Amino acid sequence: MDDDFIKPNPIRDSTNKLKLSVFGANGKGGAFTFHPDRFSGDWDANVRVAKKADELGIEGFVSASRWRAFGRGGHYSGDVMETLTWAGAIAAVTERISVISTVAVSLINPAFVAKAEATIDLISRGRAGMNLVCGWFQPEFDLFGVELKEHSDRYAYGDQWMEVFDKLWSSTEEFDLHNEAFSVKDAISQPRPLQSRPVLLNAGGSPRGRQFAAQHAEVAFTIPDDPDPRAVKERVAEYREDARKKFGKEIQIWLSAYVVQEDTTAEAEAYAHDYIVTQGDDEAVMEMITANIPNSQTMPAGRMAEMAYEFKAGYGAYPLVGSASDIAKRIGELSDAGVDGLMLLWLDYEDGLAKFAADVLPRLEEAGLRSPAASE
């Protein structure tokens, strides 16, 4: 095949010092709130946001994965488009951006994923990737009739899943493969993909999760306990050292970050308080915390309140709240701390991305963190 047909995959290939992705537009906004500005998550809005991000030279468009809502049936947190189908459609309406499907490896067979991801790779001409998650939400496992294994066992299963997926992706001949989780015979996946391997992301935070990310992924997401850039720098260094010592490889280290941008710091803080505190969805957040953190009920009340605030604000992501100048300054500090990229969420993706493009991106370009988007 003509090499000119295959496009760069920006999450891997971009030369920007600080890379950017949009996260979670395939659902109803990056927050747990009843605020009327919450993103609709419908297909037409997804297309507009994807095309805008593509035009701006943002490196990635990353889906969230959700098979069951938090709390009662019908809750908006379950209105999340399936990520592989979604990615194929996004790939067809964009030109340059990496299109990333979040895939729950505990729930979906690697043979299906290999074929679906290769299809996305062909549609996108080499821009496909996956954000791998091992799963944790019991109702989703119940939906699939799958056992929710212990934490470390889920990652062990993920290792075995990756062994099958990688072989299916790379092999041009039939093969047999047997490990603890899978026994495949005369296995092959067609059609053949364009990339030698899709870009892989992972957000494992525990020591076992960090090992999984370092072994299999090109991008690992860290979740610092302290937003101070000095604490972020220490955490980033730990992740890099893990990958170098255990697997002899270099990986990118990213953060998820929610953005609340207004003309002034005071206006941004007031807007954040309104959607997070005044109109926040406390019931859904408590369901999420209780399901995700087994010892949550024994936490100090203050820490529980902080955690609830963080999830309502933006799924526990890093806060970028303030004026365009505030946000650009904080992003610069994160870059200085060694962060390679940010996966961004907004309450309203269309309005948020437009403001970010108008007033934050030029500042990042002036600071030498990013180059202006190339025109085609």
TrEMBL record:
Keywords: Flavoprotein, FMN, Monooxygenase, Oxidoreductase. Coiled coil: none annotated. It holds the Pfam family Bac_luciferase. This is LLM class flavin-dependent oxidoreductase. It comes from Amycolatopsis rhabdoformis. Residues 41-340 form the Luciferase-like domain.
